């Protein structure tokens, strides 16, 4: 029985979410919370997909667009690679729908596990981007890129994601806290688009400021207090485009009492915040958010991308 295992990291958007759609740049990083996928041949003419949240068995002749969105990307990977008899098992330490790249990491890890079984000579990144676009047609591919390659990625629309070789300080710790508030990325994108259309001049100014912060951040990865200050500055811009709410503001107030600065990460409206800390204040930041009832953890930037 042929069997292959691949894991991929989750991701955090450190700077530039939403503004990246409007000619700003963004910085993404891979984090040391991973998804592991095991793929094995079963010889039963069925594509089976299992995780702790779902289980599905689908005939390989089924058009991928009619498959449930929760399983569609993984089914698409197997089907597009000619794997009519494979079982895909997904194990994740990432919360889904929280803006931490769970979907992208699952696509990357699934591609990495299924590709060797298929015998096809294709890249993990290309296959995973195709799969993600079955549920997010406008996906830039940046999330899949950082989950594939690890480390830090700079992304701007119209250009390929660029891996940054900036040294990462060993004491940089990212405190991630989940609001527990459900959110819809499409709705948040539409909300920002509405702000852009209603106040184009003001929005352009904000976007230029966001791009400047991203540029400063790329030069400040080794200056952790400054990085935190820049994150807090980025958060002020995100507030102005309407993707925050009272829960996220409360979380940020708690985090900012201890960390060097914090911000929403991802589409907003819910999901997670990330606080910039080091060895001196990571524990107090984590405890403050946890004591307030938010599911929180310490993350580090990892240079280990997709790994088989």
User: Which structural class should the secondary elements be placed in?
Assistant: alpha+beta
Helix content: 25-40%
Q: Summarize the biggest pleated sheet.
A: 7 strands, mixed
Uncertain runs with pLDDT below 50, 5 residues or more?
none
Number of strands: 11
Number of helices: 9
Q: How much is the average pLDDT?
A: 93
Tell the overall outline.
globular
SSE ordering? EEEEHEHHHEEEHHHHEEHE
Q: Identify the quaternary structure here.
A: single chain
| Termini Cα gap | 17 Å
Radius of gyration computed on alpha carbons = 19 Å
User: Beta-strand level of the residues, as a percent range?
Assistant: 15-25%
Per-chain topology:
Layout: E1 3-15, E2 26-41, E3 47-50, E4 55-58, H1 72-80, E5 86-92, H2 102-118, H3 124-132, H4 142-149, E6 152-155, E7 162-164, E8 173-178, H5 185-198, H6 200-218, H7 224-240, H8 246-256, E9 261-265, E10 272-277, H9 282-291, E11 295-299
Parallel strand pairs: 3-5
Antiparallel strand pairs: 1-2, 2-5, 2-6, 3-4, 6-7, 8-10, 8-11, 9-10
